[in-house]
Amino acid sequence: MRKLFPGLALLILFTLGCERSEKVEEAKKAEPVSDKKIAARINGRPIYEEDLRGIPLKDVIDYEILYEVGLKRGLDKEVEMQVEDYKKRLIVTTLQKEIVPNRPKEEVVSEEEIQEYYKQNVSKYKAMSFKEIIVEDKNLADQIQKRAMAGEDFDQISSDLTKSGLNVQVVDLRFNRRFNDKFSGKEIGSVSEVIKEGNKFVILKLTEVKEFPLEKAKQAIKYAVALKKRAQALHDYAEQAKKDNNITVEILEVDEGK
């Protein structure tokens, strides 16, 4: 009986080898007829010499082996969503190029459009400086805001409160655009409401404004207007395509807190 086991094992290996050879032969037979010169085969799948493009054959073989291992582990299922997303982006990008073939800088933007955009977005072309008081207590922040609104100096407020043992920080924020929207159209000396930032509370006072004239902002505005026009063209196309192709769009309520 013991003599049968080595023989049986050899028979199994021989059978598996035959099956493997048959699969490789089947893969060879299934190869499309081509004049391309085959440099190697991985599981019967050909690697063509002209597709190497200067890459060493060894590296290509290693790459293909890793691909085969990934398939056996079912990784193709794991990346299906990424592949689908990439395919979607390629399709949409190709269509966008057909709809709006020009790059933004090549878009025709008139002088009137540039001036109108500048007027409507003038706060974007300003750099503002602020004094900022930072505290960790909301009630204290409210008190500071009231004193600041009454015209008290930030440094004096901070000094008074620090002497009382309270933790108060005063920071100079030099020329940035972070709070431009909050102070759009406001004069120097204006004080903000209490702003919550994480676990801290902030009060701002506008101390200086530096404006960028239209001439200096013109190129940036031209590009912004071009992008806006392209976006509108794409939107108009999508709206018309929705009608022409009977595409249903259902907009659901979105919880902004999530």
pLDDT under 50 segments (min length 5)? 1-20
Share of residues in strands: 15-25%
Largest sheet: 4 strands, antiparallel
How many alpha or pi helices? 8
Mean pLDDT: 82
Whole-number count of domains: 3
Distance between the termini: 70 Å
CATH fold annotation of the largest domain? Chitinase A, domain 3
Describe this structure as you would to a colleague:
- Helix content is 50%, strand content 16%.
- It is α+β, with helices and mostly antiparallel strands and 258 residues long.
- The chain has three domains: 36-78, no CATH class; 81-108 and 213-248, no CATH class; 122-212, Roll (Chitinase A, domain 3).
- Helix 5 packs across helix 8 (214-244).
List keywords for this structure.
single chain; 258 residues; alpha+beta; Chitinase A, domain 3; four-stranded antiparallel sheet; two-stranded antiparallel sheet; 8 helices; disordered N terminus
List the helices and strands and how they pair.
Blueprint: H1 4-30, E1 38-42, E2 45-48, H2 57-72, H3 75-78, H4 80-99, H5 111-120, E3 126-135, H6 138-149, H7 154-163, E4 169-176, E5 195-197, E6 200-211, H8 214-244
Antiparallel strand pairs: 1-2, 3-4, 3-6, 5-6
